[in-house]
User: Fold this.
Amino acid sequence: MKAIDKQWGIRPQREKALMLARREVAAFVCDAVNLEGLPFTLPEVQTLLDGITVGGHKVSDQQIVLNQGKAWESLFASLREHGFAVSRAYACALHAIAAKEEVLTWGAFRCGGVTIAGTDWLPPKHTELPRLFERMVQEADVLEDIYDRAIFVFLEMARTQFFYDVNKRMGRFMMNGLLLDAGYPAINLPARHKLEFNRLMLNFYATGDQAPMNAFMRSCLDPKIIKIMKEDLPKQARPVR
Assistant:
């Protein structure tokens, strides 16, 4: 089903959405690693992504930053080639980049049990994961609002824990890939909202109620980005019909 934006009335503009996301990659990476407890500054992340090492950080932590940057580049390449898909194969291929040498295994669904700190919620058995991924895709496809659809994928991936680790980051990659592929702006999760994010996620793990997290994620979409997306294209930039 083709999805639309019901909240802000954004018209899909794929190239504009991709351009805006490319310009914010360093911020996306910086916020993502800070949410994981790695205190990199934005200039440090920009320097690392430019191929220059920075002092004062573990080599392993710097590699996590670089992995996030490489995953974004892989995502953009897939979007340029219209090769993005909310599929098990694509998610595993992107996880192989984003989680390389950070987790027990990368690039494949977990083959054992996991827990989530701070909650009694126990993710499903690993034998259920392929079926649950397909169910997630089917349930997402019937959601008419594009942001409901994308946020649903993020939250289901986080709660189901398809991988041994890097599940929330992977969920956000898939969420933003879905949004950008449809021509809508990506959502960045600012690290300054870490406390609220963690509190709401723990409640979501326990209850499965997506509504509070859906509202929170929508609040993270930068109003400036919404305004730019709603600007009319100059006449010379409009496609000839």
Residues 14-228 form a domain with the Fic-like fold fold (CATH 1.10.3290.10). The radius of gyration is 18 Å. The chain has one domain: 14-228.
